[in-house]
Here is the input.
Amino acid sequence: MKTYIVGNWKLNFTVGEASIYLHKLLKTLPNYRDLEIVVAPSTLALQPLSLQVDRHKIKLAAQNGFYRDTGAYTGETSFAQLRGLVNYAIIGHSERRYVLHENDKEIAKKVAAAIRNHITPILCIGEIESERAFGETKDVIRDQLIGGLSEVSDDELAKVIIAYEPVWAISSAKSAKLASPDEIAEVVDLIRKTLSETYGAKAAEGVPVLFGGSVNPSNAGAYLTVPGVNGLLIGASSLILSEFVDIIEVAKRVRA
Ligand code: PGA
Here is the structure.
C-alpha cells in the first residue's frame, strides 16, 4: 500500500499564495512512486491549481463538498462540480463536525456523493478530550466510522480512506496534546476490527488509515511507524513548505 502524506491547508492562503506554494513544491519534489502526496487548498483555489498541478507528483483534495450534485443549495459546491478537479476529498473533519455542526448522516451522504463522482473520500473520525477522559473513545470511533460509511457498499470500501484525528491533538485545540504511538495504535486497531466486522477482514486490510494531529517533521517518523498507520494528515505544519517537504523526506526514509 502507498503511504499518504496529505496537507490540509484549511482556511489559509489566497489563490495566488496557494499557486506559489504549489509551484515551489512541484519544483522541489521528484516523482515518488510509493508516496501519495496530496494537498487540500480552499475550494476557490482548486480550479486554477488543477490546471497547474502535475498529477504524477501531487494530487489535489477538496476540504469539503455537498452531497447533492445539483439544485437549489445556495453557497454549496457539489462533488459533481469537483469531479475532475480533485482526486480526494476530506470529509467529516472535526472542524466541520464541531464548528459547522455536521452530523454522521450528512457525512455519510457526502462520502457516497464523493464516491459517486469518482473522488476518494478521506473520512475523518476522532474523539474529543472529554470523550477520551470518560472512556468513550471506542464508542465514538465506532459510531463515527459506522455512521460515516453507512452508505458505502462492500465493493466501494476499497475507494475509501480513513483518517484518525483525535480532536484534542489537533494543533488548533486549546492546549493541544501530542497523541502517543500507543494511543494511536489502539484506535487504528479498533478501526480495522470495526471495518472487518462489517466488510470482512480482507477488505478491512486494504483500507488506508491515516493519522493526524500536530504532526510535524520531528514526530512524523514515530507516527508513520505506528502499526497499521498508512499515512499522515497534516494541518499547521503543511502550511510551511520546508516542513511539509521535510515530512515527505521522513516518509520516504521510513518507507524505504
Ligand atoms: P494539525 O491539523 O496538524 O494542525 O494538528 C490536522 C488537521 O486538523 O487535519
The pocket of 2-phosphoglycolic acid is lined by residues 8, 165, 170-171, 212-215, 233-237 (CB under 6 Å). The first strand starts at residue 3 and ends at 8.
